[in-house]
Amino acid sequence: MEKIKSMVSENGVVIFTKSTCCLCYAVTILFQELSVNPLVYEIDQDPQGREMEKALLKQGRNSPPVPAVYIGGKLVGSTNEVMSLHLSGSLIPLLKPYQSLS
């Protein structure tokens, strides 16, 4: 879907979420704690949300459609993939170019 491609190509870190998803919230807070200010896009607030969810599901390779985390234009995955990367120490190097200096 063009809308997803556009957001992902124009922003370093994008998290597609739903406003009622607690795992989406947890991933968003994790990134903020790591000094990253991602673009958080709540697909349930978009009139094209259903189509976006279907497109994210196709890209997700057996992951839930949200949260869908993109870093540097590439799909990292959902909560399981993000947490696995974080626990293995591999997430911070991916996020380093997008961390704020504050």
Task: Kindly summarize this structure in a few lines.
By secondary structure, this protein is an alpha+beta fold. Helix content is 46%, strand content 17%.
General description of the model:
Helix 2 (22-33) links the parallel strand 1 (13-17) and strand 2 (39-42). The N and C termini lie far apart (35 Å). The protein has a 4-stranded mixed sheet, sandwiched between helices. It has 5 helices and 4 strands; from the N terminus they run αβαβαββαα. It is globular, with a radius of gyration of 13 Å. It has helices at 2-10, 22-33, 49-59, 79-88, 91-95, and strands spanning 13-17, 39-42, 68-71, 74-77. The protein is an alpha+beta fold and 102 residues long. 46% of the residues lie in helices and 17% in strands.
Properties at a glance:
5 helices; 102 residues; single chain; 46% helix; alpha+beta
Write the layout of secondary structure elements.
Layout: H1 2-10, E1 13-17, H2 22-33, E2 39-42, H3 49-59, E3 68-71, E4 74-77, H4 79-88, H5 91-95
Parallel strand pairs: 1-2
Antiparallel strand pairs: 1-3, 3-4
Span between N and C termini? 35 Å
Question: What is the string of helix and strand elements?
Answer: HEHEHEEHH
CA-based shape: globular
- The fraction of residues assigned to DSSP E strands is 15-25%
Helix content: 40-55%
Count of DSSP strands? 4
The average pLDDT is 94
Rg calc: 13 Å
Q: Enumerate the strands of the largest sheet in spatial order, edge to edge or round the barrel.
A: 2-1-3-4
- Helix segment tally: 5
Q: From the helix content, strand content and strand pairing, which structural class follows? A: alpha+beta
Summarize the biggest pleated sheet: 4 strands, mixed
Ranges where pLDDT stays below 50 over 5 or more residues in a row are: none
